Amino acid sequence: MLKLLGRSNAYNVRKVLWLLGELGLPFEQEDWGRGHRPTANPAFLALNPLGTVPVLVDGEVVMRESHVILRYLATREGAVHLLPEAPSARALVEQWMDWVAYDMTLAMKGAYLGGELGLAPWNDPWSVARGRAEYAQGMKRIAAALEADGPYLAGRTFTLADIPAGFLVHRWFAMRGIEWAAMPALDAYYTRLSERPAYRAHVRNGLA
Description:
single chain, alpha+beta, 9 helices, globular
């Protein structure tokens, strides 16, 4: 059986939990990280020397990095509706996943970790202001893409592109320190995602 290591309220772990729910896969979970067993524990570091969550264990296969795990699970299950086989269609999905990982991570740290949770070193005024501005710009880009090619980010159907982005959208609406611009396409997208049971269970579940 699949084993997922990482606390269930962690951002990157919740993305994997969402996909596991979408795929209906049985799994075991162990809570590691802040407030639980420390990831500096030698047993954890033997699986992931970086000490980060999540870690997925599938028999003898062990991997880290949430987006890698998302791709692995979709491929393992032959879920071509989530991660297409055709190179052009797959690239459309993966470009959104990589955009979240590379372009939006620092924005979220400033806006959420600094601005909402007050965690150092992201809670200085410059990081918070910059993070909020970049987060708002990112939401405008998602809204524009949805208006042009929606109702999902990669077109007519839900794909892996919507998992990292869907979490960003949830956190956008959960943050108190940001003034929301009117973006009807983003509102509709959030409502659409919220109709999915796995999204409600692991993302829009009362946690930011």
